[in-house]
Amino acid sequence: MGSATTQALAVGAEALDATQVDLDTARELFAASRAVAGSSALSGALADRAATPEARGALVARAFGSLSPVAQGLLQQTVAQRWSSGDDLVLGLEELAIRAAAKAEQSDVEAELFQVARIVSANPELELALGSRLGDDAKKGELIASLLQGRASEGTTLIVSSLVQQPRNRRVRAILSRAMKIAAAQRGRTVATVYTAVPLSAAQSERLAAALSKQYGGAVALNPVIDPTVVGGIRIQVADDVIDGSISSRLADLRQRLAG
């Protein structure tokens, strides 16, 4: 991801923070993202550095004139930025839509996305069906909406059902992992996946969250995973950081030292 895209994403996040949005806004942004992703001519024109921001904005008005003023305004601000490529612009629009849904939804979206990812990873046939290039993309969205009915909030269902309609050669679990991080970032949180052999108590979870929050300088959301291979202790992953205090890790280290 180029520096131009990184800066454009930051501007988009700031614009969203300053805008009052609801789930209908997020729904419109997802629709716009799918439309741009489905047309190389449109994505190329909207990301064309040779065109003025005004010209790109005029194209948004023509292509998405039926959207609400709020959604159009966010799209206008997004395409006015410099993007490293048309593909990066599509990812930027997708991120904007995810952030809008996370902002509008009151439930714990990142935790729900984590649970959906766990369901998908535990069902290879479901992941294969959702990630397949064959089949109707709209039907995939309907399938997810049906599966999550009563199990997840409207915002989370919107995010997942929208994303599976435009996998763009990405694995579903990777898409959901990215969405979870974006949703957490929108709420000013860092996500920590915690692996233990037995569930943590409420008090243990609170102490761990407090310790991680102090270490990472902000709120940390815990995603617990029960993993019998941990044996004892705990393994924590925060982005690329891994904190491994499990017995299985210490045993593996001991075996490696004895073998050496």
Automatic annotation (TrEMBL):
Its main location: membrane. It is a peripheral membrane protein. It is found in: Cell membrane; Membrane. The keyword Ion transport applies. GO terms for molecular function: proton-transporting ATP synthase activity, rotational mechanism. One of its GO terms (cellular component) is proton-transporting ATP synthase complex. The keyword Methyltransferase does not apply. Keywords: ATP synthesis, Cell membrane, CF(1), Hydrogen ion transport, Ion transport, Membrane, Transport. Transmembrane segments: none annotated. InterPro entries: ATPase_OSCP/dsu. This protein is part of the stalk that links CF(0) to CF(1). It either transmits conformational changes from CF(0) to CF(1) or is implicated in proton conduction. Belongs to the ATPase delta chain family. NCBIfam families: ATP_synt_delta, PRK13430.1. PANTHER family: ATP SYNTHASE DELTA CHAIN. This is ATP synthase subunit delta. It comes from Microbacterium barkeri.
